[in-house]
Amino acid sequence: METKIHQGRNIKRFREMLGIKQEALAFELGEEWNQKKISLLEQKEEVDTPLLEQISQVLHIPVEAFKNFDEEQAVNVISNTFNEEAFIANSGGTFNINPIEKWIEALEEIKRLNAELLKSKEEQIKMLEKLMQTK
User: By the 8 A CB rule, do 39 and 33 touch?
Assistant: First the structure.
């Protein structure tokens, strides 16, 4: 049985992992977007590729992640791959690195970079507001 990837749900998952609110994503996508429209988008099973590319740029997540991430498949891979021995060094001196930890580290870095980007944009907005007040 083939499962269908729900692209809207994947957008929501990655957005939430990055700690970005629907309103913030709407703001980044442009004037025609609002929180309600993002909510409706996240309910869509398939999302047009140009829009996925735009969201990809805003969230700094590859388009393929939205198109291919299957939570059920990921859980199956993790549960079938890892057991208590997967994290214990064996007598041969080899050990396994927990890929989930590495993934979480990468997500934390993405969060940090997004926070820096947001701070920079806020500073630009303040500067533009000051510039507009002086005119």
Answer: no
According to the 3-state scheme, what is the secondary structure of 50-109? HHHHHHHHHHCCCHHHHHHCCHHHHHHHHHHHCCHHHHCCCCCCCCCCCHHHHHHHHHHH
Spatial distance between the Cα atoms of 131 and 63, rounded to a whole number of angstroms? 37
Crossing angle of helices 49-59 and 7-17, rounded to 10°: 10
| pLDDT tens figures, 20-62 | 999 999 999 999 999 999 999 999 999 999 999 999 999 988 8
What dihedral do alpha carbons 92, 77, 16, 99 form, nearest 10°?
A: 10
| Residue pair 58/113 in contact by the 8 Å Cβ criterion | no
